[in-house]
UniProtKB/TrEMBL annotation:
NCBIfam families: panB, PRK00311.1. Its cofactor is Mg(2+). Pathway: Cofactor biosynthesis; (R)-pantothenate biosynthesis; (R)-pantoate from 3-methyl-2-oxobutanoate: step 1/2. The keyword Cytoplasm applies. 3-methyl-2-oxobutanoate binds at D45, S46, D84, K114. It is an enzyme of class 2 (transferase). Its EC number is 2.1.2.11. The lineage of its organism: Bacteria, Pseudomonadati, Bacteroidota, Flavobacteriia, Flavobacteriales. This is 3-methyl-2-oxobutanoate hydroxymethyltransferase. Homodecamer; pentamer of dimers. Binds 1 Mg(2+) ion per subunit.
Amino acid sequence: IKKITTETLRKMKFDKEKITMLTAYDFTTAKMVDAGGVESILIGDSAANVMAGFETTLPITLDQMIYHTQCVVRGVQRALVVADLPFGSYQSNPDKALESAVRMMKEGGAHAVKIEGGIEIEESIRKIINAGIPVMGHLGLTPQSIYQFGTYKVRAKEEAEAEKLLSDAKLLEELGCFALVLEKIPANLAKKVTENITIPTIGIGAGADCDGQVLVYHDMVGMNHGFSPKFLRRYLDLYTEITGAVSQFVKDVKTADFPNQNESY
Ligand code: KIV
Ligand code: NA
């Protein structure tokens, strides 16, 4: 199996071949997502939401993200494995950012890290990349800043924020980031960013003109009925499938249908 690298993604943009990315947080899921053929798997800090049940991504720790990353890495043969650095593990200063990124690579086994923000974290990004660690940027609706935004609505609809986003995107390219997630911004802005940088853009709620698309696994397989943003396409209705299977199991046990003779020793 030929492994996907940051170079593969760069070339895909050049060749106008779309890039796909999904999240995973555990071994078994990672195996299925890798087998399905995505180029990249993200251990998102959305683990705080879908694995741990927190309302925001802020509470998850670096140790917890490292654990999820270790589990995913064991299940992946082909995809590029990117891990989020969680809130508080890189914002305070560049030395801490580098230390967190090194732990994620060394203990977690990630192939790259993703961090949220632009010019505010310039020095941290520089430091991490100088250490030989590939960095994926993340602009737009960056969930670690939710208390500053106050809402999960579309970002950068106003000219000033759109201009800052474009200049942040150019900065991330200049710093040497290998790709960039654009979350929940107008499609025309994502298109403009994509056309103005040579590194791939991976969109979520950012329209069809990004170089690739990413979704949260639990959302795209429909495990999560409580989350229905317009950008989400559900490929399965696993919430219904799984609760149905569970209630059938309950019924089968209670009626002594399960286990039957073939299922007994
Ligand atoms: O944490 C996450 O799942 C993410 C993606 C939505 C890009 O950052
Ligand atoms: Na994230």
